[in-house]
């Protein structure tokens, strides 16, 4: 066996946490994963899926699910992404290929590594990923991963319509979803979820229980109402929870949404934030600049989000994770399978109208992200809305791209510009 | 000045059609409506049956994009910028409809969003067309439904529903062209009578000509072609592009370096004629199933559907080497497995991350390919 060191590279700082619930939530997830590894070693099944798969179905079967993007976040946060991307390139996968979602494959390909993150990914019963025209590049990657594990792959294909989301879709998507999407699309996704249900039945040997899915959906919907309370606080005044902390907590909960643990964790998280707001426990008392982070998180260095609080009074007050959980995920209806299908017909990510609404409702002074997120249309729309933008030339998970000095200079220059705009 | 009475050789007409695209003279005749296609895999028979002519809309990165400049920042993909400009600017008065295919879903969304905000006046009306990629019977039915929907839309354009007879007649025309194209594709490989650049453009000209015109011209080229001595000794290359090619720059660079491109894993080239549409009582279903079964590219699932053509063709003894031409680096997860396949077959391959649509990309491709092709030439000489 080759002895390999999982070298750690990238940003050195760790994000500071303020909330008492954070170690409980993160610890709970770590414990859950350790237990999962033991259970799988004893013959239990689990599913390895992407973020845009209908996880509620797995929950309704008591089939644990590990999320590919969560795993990427774990690897990146441990500063092991650089090592794994080197490994990918050594396997012949060129550097222009998707990185953010490729760390699951990278760790599985690196099978001789004696020290994988969190003990490594056990072999799942099957893999599942969403499959959209706009993400055509992902199919082969998921097939490779499944082949490497020698397990089936369920491509959850969502047909596109070529149409944008309806205006102010977030106001009607929870209950009025049937009218938001064309029937041909909704019917097809509805059927695809039933195909997934049949696969889960074959995997577990258990029959699908519609009432159980109703309970899972109810819990998932309830969870998002707790998040909404937190967002209301973030919109109303100074920040009481940092984005770095919010990102980790929201995603940890979100990836197990529909479980009792997730709903309870969301409630505790929300209550603690409300308590801090009542007590005026701001994370940055001299809050001067309110910033919105656009797109997926800077998982390779979440401490970045807090690095300019003391020096500049710059606070990140919004990221997409919590807002999409609130606006994009909840679906109510008598048929939980169809309600779930409606979510995947159009969850709202990429809706520029929504991004701008989010920025305005959070009263931000500027928008920051990485260059790959701020594509031409996005940037142009944000600028048209009067929102100053900073695009960092960094990859979200690849530690090899981090340049502390360059990021600092770019942020300081941007904050300086915002200061002048504010008349400072 | 060229003599107006001397007939233009058929090959020149085909190359000119590919070069001039919507500006080619052959297209101007007949007074038919033009329907633009953005992307591969969009059925052309319903368009022909509606009395219109399908024409491919190629992006031209590097051209001026005044419309895109208003709505997109400079860092947006040059392909997307160019396509937006074509549909909302250059071709707005030429095309009666544009059918946008699945890989360009984001273009369709963008156009509709801008149109909704009244920020894109005069853009070509668009229809989005997507077939499901996973090969299941449910998806086959779904794809038939989408094909029928597109046909209804074309009926509105024509002013009357598209008839079964018109569809059958369109199938006859495109099948005849496919027969000639198949013969041409085989002859290109067997006789080396044209450069790969010429052959690719002659095939690709079908995207800008009526099927009967293209078939006649290609037939004439076949009749007139003779093996060329200067091409016989060249190493024979298969190009595997990362996404469908909308240009012949990569062919040209590789051939200037001494190769002969005899095939490309590309829906507009050597994969443009994958059999015939069956003649049945239900032509619309036959059309839809044909396109459903013959899709190409990264979006196809499972892998054996995606890679079958490559494995069959690359493994043939007349291929000396394979160039993976990666102009869009986000694609290429299959490349390591494909190269492994080639290694096992003893076939050399080159991974070229370069975009030959730009001058610097062509220089890069040249620098990467010259030693590779020189190595293949030396191998042939031994």
SSE layout and pairing:
The complex is a heterodimer of chains A (424) and B (382).
Chain A: H1 21-41, E1 47-49, H2 55-60, E2 65-67, H3 68-77, H4 81-90, H5 103-109, E3 126-131, H6 138-149, E4 153-157, H7 183-204, H8 210-236, H9 243-254, H10 260-279, E5 289-293, H11 309-312, E6 314-318, H12 320-327, H13 336-345, H14 352-361, E7 366-370, H15 376-384, E8 389-392, H16 404-422
Chain B: H1 10-20, H2 25-28, E1 34-38, H3 45-49, E2 53-56, H4 66-71, H5 78-90, E3 95-101, H6 105-116, E4 126-129, H7 137-158, H8 164-191, H9 196-204, H10 211-224, H11 229-232, E5 236-241, H12 249-256, E6 260-264, H13 283-293, H14 303-314, E7 321-326, H15 335-344, E8 349-353, H16 359-381
Parallel strand pairs in B: 1-2, 1-3, 3-4, 5-6, 5-7, 7-8
Helix pairs in contact in B: 1-9, 1-10, 7-13, 8-10, 12-16
In short:
Chain A is α/β, with parallel strands linked by helices and 424 residues long. Chain A is built from 16 helices and eight strands.
Descriptive overview:
The complex is a heterodimer of chains A (424) and B (382). Chain A has helices at residues 21-41, 55-60, 68-77, 81-90, 103-109, 138-149, 183-204, 210-236, 243-254, 260-279, 309-312, 320-327, 336-345, 352-361, 376-384, 404-422; strands spanning 47-49, 65-67, 126-131, 153-157, 289-293, 314-318, 366-370, 389-392. Chain A is α/β, with parallel strands linked by helices and 424 residues long. In chain A, helix 1 runs parallel beside helix 9 and helix 8 (210-236) packs across helix 12 (320-327). Chain B is α/β, with parallel strands linked by helices. Classes of the chains: A alpha/beta (424), B alpha/beta (382). At the A-B interface, helix 6, helix 7 and helix 15 of A face helix 6, strand 4, helix 7 and helix 15 of B.
């Amino acid at each position: 066996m080759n002895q390999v060191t999982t070298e750690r590279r990238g940003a050195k700082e760790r994000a500071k946490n303020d909330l008492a619930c954070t170690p409980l939530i993160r610890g709970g997830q770590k414990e859950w994963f350790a237990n999962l590894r033991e259970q799988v070693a004893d013959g239990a099944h689990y599913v390895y899926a992407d973020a845009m798969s209908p996880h509620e179905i797995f929950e309704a079967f008591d089939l644990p699910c590990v999320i590919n993007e969560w795993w990427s976040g774990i690897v990146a946060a441990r500063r092991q992404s650089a090592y794994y991307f080197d490994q990918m390139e050594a396997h012949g996968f060129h550097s222009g290929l998707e990185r953010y979602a490729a760390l699951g494959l990278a760790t599985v390909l690196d099978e001789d590594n004696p020290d994988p993150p969190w003990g490594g990914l056990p072999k799942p019963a099957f893999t599942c990923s969403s499959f959209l025209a706009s993400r055509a590049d992902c199919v082969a990657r998921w097939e490779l991963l499944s082949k490497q594990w020698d397990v089936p792959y369920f491509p959850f294909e969502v047909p596109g319509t070529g149409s944008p989301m309806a205006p102010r879709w977030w106001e009607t998507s929870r209950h009025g979803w049937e009218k938001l999407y064309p029937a041909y699309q909704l019917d097809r996704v509805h059927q695809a979820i039933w195909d997934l249900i049949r696969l889960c039945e074959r995997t577990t040997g258990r029959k699908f229980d519609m009432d159980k899915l109703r309970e899972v959906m109810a819990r998932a919907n309830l969870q998002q109402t707790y998040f909404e309370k937190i967002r209301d606080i973030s919109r109303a005044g100074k920040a009481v929870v940092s984005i770095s902390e919010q990102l980790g907590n929201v995603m940890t909960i979100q990836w197990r949404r529909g479980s009792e643990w997730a709903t309870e964790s969301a409630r505790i998280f929300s209550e603690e934030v409300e308590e801090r707001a009542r007590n005026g426990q701001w994370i940055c008392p001299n809050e001067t600049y309110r910033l919105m982070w656009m797109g997926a998180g800077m998982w390779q260095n979440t401490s970045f989000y807090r690095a300019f609080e003391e020096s500049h009074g710059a606070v990140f007050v919004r990221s997409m994770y919590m807002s999409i959980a609130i606006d994009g995920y909840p679906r109510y209806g008598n048929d939980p399978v169809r309600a779930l299908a409606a979510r995947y017909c159009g969850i709202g990510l990429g809706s520029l109208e929504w991004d701008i609404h989010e920025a305005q409702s959070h009263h931000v002074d500027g928008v920051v992200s990485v260059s790959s997120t701020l594509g031409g249309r996005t940037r142009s729309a944000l600028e048209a809305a009067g929102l100053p933008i900073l695009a960092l030339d960094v990859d979200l998970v690849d530690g090899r791209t981090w340049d502390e000095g360059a990021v600092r200079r770019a942020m300081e220059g941007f904050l300086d510009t915002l200061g002048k705009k504010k008349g400072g | 000045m060229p003599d107006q009475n001397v007939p233009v050789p058929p090959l020149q007409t085909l190359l000119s059609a590919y070069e001039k695209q919507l500006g080619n003279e052959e297209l101007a005749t007949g007074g038919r409506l033009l329907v633009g296609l953005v992307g591969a895999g969009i059925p052309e028979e319903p368009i022909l049956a509606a009395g219109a002519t399908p024409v491919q809309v190629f992006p031209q990165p590097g051209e001026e994009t005044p419309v895109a400049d208003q709505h997109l920042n400079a860092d947006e993909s040059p392909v997307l910028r160019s396509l937006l400009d074509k549909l909302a600017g250059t071709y707005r008065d030429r095309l009666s409809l544009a059918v946008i295919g699945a890989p360009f879903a984001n273009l369709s969304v963008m156009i509709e969003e801008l149109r909704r905000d009244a920020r894109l006046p005069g853009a070509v009306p668009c229809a989005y067309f997507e077939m499901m990629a996973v090969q299941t019977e449910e998806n086959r039915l779904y794809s038939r439904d989408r094909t029928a929907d597109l046909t209804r839309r074309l009926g509105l354009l024509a002013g009357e529903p598209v008839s079964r007879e018109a569809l059958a007649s369109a199938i006859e025309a495109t099948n005849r062209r496919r027969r000639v194209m198949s013969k041409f594709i085989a002859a290109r490989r067997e006789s080396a009578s044209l450069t790969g650049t010429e052959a690719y453009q002659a095939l690709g000209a079908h995207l800008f000509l009526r099927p009967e015109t293209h078939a006649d011209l290609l037939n004439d080229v076949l009749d007139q072609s003779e093996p060329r001595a200067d091409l016989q000794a060249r190493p024979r290359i298969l190009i595997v592009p990362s996404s469908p090619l909308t240009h012949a720059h990569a062919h040209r660079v590789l051939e200037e370096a001494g190769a002969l491109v005899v095939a490309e894993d590309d829906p507009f080239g050597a994969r443009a004629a994958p059999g015939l549409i069956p003649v049945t009582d239900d032509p619309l279903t036959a059309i839809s199933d044909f396109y459903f079964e013959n899709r190409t590219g990264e979006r196809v699932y499972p892998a054996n559907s995606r890679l079958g053509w490559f494995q069959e063709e690359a493994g043939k003894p007349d291929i000396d080497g394979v160039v993976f031409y990666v102009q869009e680096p986000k694609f290429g997860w299959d490349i390591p497995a494909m190269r492994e396949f080639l290694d096992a077959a003893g076939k050399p391959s080159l991974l070229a991350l370069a975009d030959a649509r730009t001058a610097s990309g062509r220089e890069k491709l040249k620098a990467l390919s010259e030693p590779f092709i020189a190595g293949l030439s030396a191998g042939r000489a031994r």
